[in-house]
């Protein structure tokens, strides 16, 4: 309400300056006065103030010199004009809301930001950390994996990315908002020997991917 009234006051100040400048032609001056009176009547209506009855030129009617019937008819006309303006404003607002909803439904509506600080898990070998979003009701993943390769030393294999392991899941649209539940799942895949306890050099293997652990947390 404050913003609406402030905007109207700014308009009235600007129009008053144009009227006082004395540079407007008679027809433009007449139209501008009508805009001013219409804006004042509209502002009084939304502020629940009294409606000022005016003639066709926008001048306030004098009740001492105007008949009761004329005042009543002028009041009806003014009320009708203000109500039409209110309906027009309401219709415009509804159209704006509809357009916003359509845009909201047609484009991704939100994103999930992930910042990986550390992997506190005793693995003993190199590993791959995969993070993704999962729908537990449909039993399926709804996003791509964010992959971080972790070394056996407890640090990212790409040391330049230390303290900078960030990802944003942006493929979340209106369909995902309607899901009853979304979980954030982290999978750890061990990369190395078939068996951690395999000390026999003749059977020693490397580079094999084996599931090691998984964790999940509800997002919504």
TrEMBL record:
Pfam families: DOCK_N. Residues 72-99 form a coiled coil. InterPro entries: DOCK (IPR026791), DOCK_N (IPR032376), DOCK_N_sub1 (IPR042455). One of its GO terms (molecular function) is guanyl-nucleotide exchange factor activity. Keywords: Coiled coil. GO terms for cellular component: cytoplasm; plasma membrane. PANTHER family: DEDICATOR OF CYTOKINESIS (PTHR45653), DEDICATOR OF CYTOKINESIS PROTEIN 1 (PTHR45653:SF1). This is DOCK1 protein. It comes from Baryphthengus martii. The lineage of its organism: Eukaryota, Metazoa, Chordata, Craniata, Vertebrata.
């Amino acid at each position: 309400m404050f913003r609406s009234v402030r905007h109207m006051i700014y308009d009235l100040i600007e129009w008053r300056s144009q009227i006082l400048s004395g540079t407007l032609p008679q027809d433009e001056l007449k139209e501008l006065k009508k805009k001013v009176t219409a804006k004042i009547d509209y502002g009084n209506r939304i502020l629940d103030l009294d409606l000022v009855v005016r003639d066709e030129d926008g001048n306030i009617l004098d009740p001492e010199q105007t008949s009761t019937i004329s005042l009543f008819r002028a009041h009806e006309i003014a009320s009708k004009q203000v109500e039409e303006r209110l309906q027009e404003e309401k219709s415009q607002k509804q159209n704006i809301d509809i357009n916003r909803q359509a845009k909201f439904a047609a484009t991704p509506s939100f994103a999930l930001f992930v910042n990986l600080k550390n992997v506190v898990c005793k693995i003993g070998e190199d590993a791959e950390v995969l993070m993704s979003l999962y729908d537990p009701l449909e039993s399926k993943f709804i996003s791509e994996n964010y992959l971080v390769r972790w070394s056996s030393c407890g640090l990212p294999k790409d040391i330049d990315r230390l303290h900078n392991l960030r990802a944003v899941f942006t493929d979340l649209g209106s369909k995902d908002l309607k899901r009853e539940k979304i979980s954030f799942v982290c999978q750890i895949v061990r990369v190395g020997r078939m068996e951690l306890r395999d000390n026999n050099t003749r059977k020693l293997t490397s580079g094999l991917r084996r599931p090691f652990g998984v964790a999940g947390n509800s997002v919504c």
